[in-house]
Amino acid sequence: MPQPFRTSRLVEFHDTDMAGIMHFASFFVYMESAEHEMLRSLGLSIYAVVEGEQISFPRVSATCNYSSPARCEDILDIEVSVTRIGTKSVTYEFRFTCDGHPVANGSMTAVCCRVGAGEKPTSRPIPAEAVAKLKTYAA
To answer: What is the value of pTM for the model shown?
Structure first.
């Protein structure tokens, strides 16, 4: 069974509220950052030129459920798994822990789109090379 991609991140002061607890919205920034890091580890990018077209992966869904607070200067361990690869979309799951204790679980779905300058994004199939590489972290 494939292992998830793993990374870690320090909770910085600007990611917290007045009580020093990580703000809920910061988890979405961390998820996107971990996704980008995972894609780069596979030799992929959130932006690419494929068959002469500029493509990207805008989000169409994002959720996060919280089980315990993260605080300023905690180091969060983040696991990223690919839970679904469709024809045009990919869904990721994120597990946040701190010192082995659960902090939050999130999910994000992105759609592969043509993103020409001045044009509305239009969905397109995920390139076969990207699908093959994403399977590295399939849950």
So the answer is: 0.94
